[in-house]
Amino acid sequence: MLAFLSRIHYILNPSPQTRTPTYDTLPGKQLNFGCLGAAKIAPGALIKPSKTHLEVVLYAVAARDAKRAEEFAKKHGFLRSFGGLQGYQDMLDDPAVDVVYNPLPNGLHFEWTMKALAAGKHVLLEKPATNTAAEAAAIYALAKRKNLVVMEAFHYRFHPAIQRVKAILESGELGAVKKVKAALTAPEGTAPEGDIRWSYDLGGGSTMDPGCYTVNVLRYLAGCEPTSVLTAKAIPYSDRPEHKHVDRMFWATLAMENESIGEIHANLDEKKLWGIIPRMPKLSAVVECENGTVEIFNFLIPHFYHSITVHPRGKAARVEKAYSFGGAAKGEVWWTTYRYQLEAFVDQVQGRTPQTWINGEDTVANMKWVEAIYAKDGFGSRPASKYQPRAEGEDTMYRPSRTSGTPMSSPQTSLTLIQPIKDPVPSAGAGDSQYSWYYASNAGGMKIPFSRHHGKPMHQADLAYLKYASVNFVHAAFNEAFGRYEPGLNAYIDDVEFNPTTNDYNFMNALVPFGKLFKGKRLGDCHDKQFFEWCSQLVFLRKKAAFNEAFGRYEPGLNAYIDDVEFNPTTNDYNFMNALIPFGKLFKGKRLGDCHDKQFFEWCSQLVFLRKKYSLFGRALDHRLGNQHQHLVWLEVGARIRRSKYKAELVDEPLSQADWDRIKELDKAAYNDGQWGSSDSEEATTTKGDPVASDSEGESLSSDLDGFIVSDSAPIVMDTDEEVVARATVTPQRRISLASAKTRKGKSIRSFVVPQDESDGSYKEDSQLEDSESDDQQVRERQTRSSVRKKNAHQCYSCTDNPVDFDDVSLAQIQQSRCASCEKKATGLKPVRTSVKKGGSRVAPRKKVGTLPDSSDSDDEMESNDTPKTPVKVKGAKKRVGRVPSTKLARRVHPYNESPSKGRCGRHVITIDADMLQELKATATIVATPCKHGTKGKGKAKADNAVSVLLTFPL
Ligand SMILES: NC(=O)C1=CN([C@@H]2O[C@H](COP(=O)(O)OP(=O)(O)OC[C@H]3O[C@@H](n4cnc5c(N)ncnc54)[C@H](OP(=O)(O)O)[C@@H]3O)[C@@H](O)[C@H]2O)C=CC1
Ligand SMILES: O=C1OC[C@@H](O)[C@H](O)[C@H]1O
């Protein structure tokens, strides 16, 4: 019962938090979906499933009525709406749309799918694909020519339940198939009078609607095609002439290639028994085989509930359920058929292999047998579409004005377009510090090292010349710089000019026509979303049609941008941009959103061992890289090409030293030649004279607690000078909200310290890394450790004056070691030796005071120091454990649990949702640093009073 309720809850409330992390596949680019029609099925089939799909953007909806389109967009979170007579076509003409979902009435499927394909869009097409098999074949022929993906949305085929039935049949357990019976019925009134399903012209009828599923499931479970329709009978919806060919229900028997028989039935309007008692809908498929039967109840929407009854002849029947594929396969028990379908569809578009696919042959065959049934029962095929596809080749040339028709649109000429800017030189927007790198000389700032433009920064030369030079002059540094510069420039140019490929104008150049703040400025230079929202709602301002249109174009990009930097209350999603970069010297500890070095991210996103080690960060990275609107904030080009700066990241990098020496030489040569333009970027300053960026380790950054996504292995340390009550709530997707952390006095804890070094020896034993860490890496790691040791050899991390002795201890221990005097001040204890032998390494003693649930990990060398001092209550825990068995986890936590802070000591009370943890098989380790009683007062040492919570999850 609980499982049922939980499933229903997730089905009804999908949210980004319930997204399944895909650790092992790099998400591709995000796909903008455009929905044709504000259809009833759209929320279930596309909108809700999209909430948990990282790569799907609800970009636009088009409806015949503009207001309805707008309302639908607003309600469901589409970024744009198109309305009016031209609305559908306008949406197809929008170059931003990648995929079209077509849930129009059946009779319009052909026309709009053909038009969508002609416009270069992939199509997820509702069932039944078309009115006739010939139309379906034409669709697939065009899709093939245009290399586009089309799929008929027989969603049930993607669910594990029907696939389990298929697997049972294929296993041979029940022998050869003899008969397949399938029925689908809907209670009276489900499709009321006037519904599209009762219109002959729109492709209505029970054989077309529920019936097409019965044909499909028959063919699927029989494992072969029919050979003929043996019998077919249909009853019209009413006696009225317009319903003469519209069937309310039908029965048919078909002979199958494997000599089995198919019996199918559908009723789209099943009357009540005696006019008063509603009948249970029929939703089953039964397969009778030589040696038994298998029946699936509710093959259509099994995600709510289903049962698979297998009855081998002469044996007891067994009942199975299949809500997910299990193992490493993608999916969750609460994924709907539509969610599974969306996953497969997107996989196919992105070039990955989908779990299941429905190809064109399958679709055409299904339509063929629907038509054959109609032929046999005398109702006849649905009318073929009147739409005449354009001649071959015409589709690629056809570029209708994107502004024609709808009331929201305006003629092109009325737009206030400023002259295209050829180069990204400083402009009005340069004052915005957030964007200074966008405009500053570091964009295209490299000085051209040859010929007529010698000494000029790239951005002063025209693009054509640069292109010419890059082909004709062999100059490695220039070519590399240009390679970096050009994509950004192209994106920029696309934004400011007419783009002949997409036939699209750049609305970012529309000038804001009113107001004090931004009047006369380019839309693209104003980054104040609130302002735009405000003015977009004022009717009299909206009459300024040109601006209005421009704003409509601008907003989605802006939304994407805003969504990226803030918590988004609509999607209830936190911002991946806040993920802190967990490694390296360049950006470690910085917010992802604060780093504009795309090449760095591309570089590290491709390193498998980094992805394994920092899987959640990997996701954040993909999100950042995959966001197609990102060019608004991404345009960092030019002088940042010094790849050798990544050398610092290469502790684990498998490139050979020779490769890096070569890169460094190239880089140095370019630098010495004075090819680098002056740059006001921080990197440029710090790297002057030394192409390798300086070490920025050791700084600790604090950030708002809210929205931080705990990485699989990153501990969080909260500093407080009071007692702490922290409530760690864990969602199934491994998100933890520590926002409720409060001090005993009720003060919220507003900051936390993220430990600075995870890439050191303290993670050495992480089993996830073992397979990816080669001997080479270990050698490199040893070298790094030794160099860090040298660097830190004279520093106590607390007073930073006195020397600390240490021997071969982990990097983290070295960095956290205190000198004897600080150690004593802080803990009242003499420094304790680790088990490491020579030299008397000194590390602070750890106090581990609680774990949930019990860890069974084996001991390690830290065991000897584990004496709990601070009492900890674990509320809500199944058991209270006073002492943590020595574990890897504890060992990991240790180096970070000693953030010195002022204040009195106190009990640390940590409340953890124990049931949730147990369900997730997560382990929480609570570590408190010792508090020394009586240390308050003048001249006395301050007590350390910190607590850390570490949650780890099995991968
Ligand atoms: N996969 C599944 O489980 C299901 C699939 N379907 C399929 O989805 C499609 C749509 O079904 P459903 O959502 O119930 O349909 P709706 O009754 O909601 O109609 C769909 C859309 O068709 C548009 N439309 C365009 N022209 C016409 C017209 N002449 N008359 C009426 N509507 C028109 C309307 O768009 P606008 O907003 O522009 O006015 C409407 O929003 C069908 O092909 C159906 O078979 C349906 C239900 C379940
Ligand atoms: O696709 C569908 O599935 C369920 C049916 O009730 C509905 O009419 C149909 O369009």
UniProtKB/TrEMBL annotation:
- Residue ranges annotated as compositionally biased, kind Polar residues, are 401-413, 675-688
* Residue ranges of the region described as Disordered: 383-413, 673-704, 755-794, 833-871
**Residues in domain Gfo/Idh/MocA-like oxidoreductase N-terminal?**
32-153
Pfam families linked? GFO_IDH_MocA, GFO_IDH_MocA_C3
So which domain of life are we looking at?
Answer: Eukaryota
| Residue ranges that the Swiss-Prot or TrEMBL entry lists as coiled coil | none
> Which segments constitute the GFO/IDH/MocA-like oxidoreductase domain?
162-293
State the protein's name: D-xylose 1-dehydrogenase (NADP(+), D-xylono-1,5-lactone-forming)
User: Which stretches does UniProt call biased (Basic residues)?
Assistant: 835-849
What keywords are annotated for this sequence in UniProt? Oxidoreductase
